Amino acid sequence: MITHRLRIEDRIVGYERVEGKSKFYSKDFYWWNGAPIEYSLRDRFTDLKDKNNRAIFENDIIRLKFSNPFRKDRQCRVRSLKDTFELIDIESGQKDTLDLIDKVKTIEFVSFTFINLDLIFNTSKS
After folding, report:
1. Which of 27, 36, 78, 116 is buried most, with the most CB atoms less than 10 Å from its CB?
2. What is the tens place of the pLDDT at every residue in 83-99?
3. What is the 3 state secondary structure string of 43-70?
């Protein structure tokens, strides 16, 4: 099963779930039906959920709190590259695979990259 978040630019309009040759759509990620939703962009679901059971998709910004008390919390953006996901540290730009999640105590959704482009690409005006 493949699931996507559907967007028109920076506005989330719904979700798509593909099971075999069938597609199902939802406006709230809860109730699904076969009525297509118009969209221009899709973000892939990582199969991860945060501490509040919120689905994590590519183009999300998440906070990672580690089990090791000496390891600093990190904010990362989730990026899809080919058929894999990467975590990119917002501050350092360090890239990690989703295997990093195995060392994490909690994952917390923070925001979306598509509404925080200045933060992601360091273009904020000082």
Report:
1. 78
2. 899 999 999 999 999 99
3. EEEEEEECCCCCEEECCEEEEEEECCCC
| Average of per-residue pLDDT across 43-62 | 96
On the 0-12 / 13-18 / 19+ scale of CB atoms within 10 A, 40 is: exposed
Quick one: tokens of 9? 């630019």
Q: What is the mean pLDDT of residues 4-29?
A: 96
Q: How far apart are CA 111 and CA 58, in angstroms?
A: 11
Could you tell me the pTM of the whole model?
0.88
Of the candidates 77, 88, 83, 73, the residue with the CA atom closest to the CA atom of residue 115: 77
The residues spanned by each domain of the chain are: 2-120
